[in-house]
Design goal:
With 165 residues, the chain is α+β, with helices and mostly antiparallel strands. It contains 3 helices and 9 strands.
Length: 165
């Protein structure tokens, strides 16, 4: 089945960004997805993550092969209605405004989901977002438990969330 034109454009942006960020023309030819849909570069130790929303594409690359996840979302009020499906009472964010709080939690959990990159994760039960001075995401699934530093930017009507070390 052929890709939708919007998906073709997103894919073209991904290919461009891989070459642009790595400063390695032609590296995009190694871009593939594993069985769970997680992008990777064949024959390279570089880790990467992509996100798309409306006319925006975000890309995060770790040249040392570390865990990476990125999410960009257009702010939409309907997220408040579905928030009880993914926000657990212990989740925290640096934002007081409910719309941005919900989008930050969603984006942070998307980042963790992309890092986990396996099926069967429950956003409400297995992923926890904490915030004190900085934001931390925790994946607790089966015998796996890992913390990740998170950061975010509000860019006009979008929220961009990513992990870093």
């Amino acid at each position: 089945m052929p890709f939708h034109p919007k998906r073709k454009l997103e894919k073209a942006c991904e290919l461009f960004l891989v070459d642009f960020i790595t400063k390695n023309k032609g590296l995009h030819q190694f871009l593939d997805n594993d069985e769970n849909g997680k992008p990777y570069l064949k024959e390279h130790q570089i880790s990467l993550s992509f996100s798309h929303s409306q006319n925006k594409v975000a890309c995060l690359i770790d040249f040392n092969g570390g865990d990476v996840g990125v999410d960009i979302e257009l702010l939409k009020s309907k997220i408040i209605d579905i928030a009880p499906k993914f926000i657990n009472p212990n989740d925290q964010s640096p934002f007081k405004e409910k719309l941005i709080h919900c989008h930050f939690i969603w984006g942070a959990k998307e980042v963790l989901f992309k890092i986990w990159s396996k099926k069967g994760i429950d956003f409400k039960k297995d992923l926890l977002i904490l915030h004190n001075i900085k934001s931390i995401g925790i994946v607790n699934k089966d015998a796996y438990s890992q913390k990740y530093n998170l950061d975010c930017l509000k860019i006009n009507d979008f929220i961009l969330v990513w992990n870093f070390d």
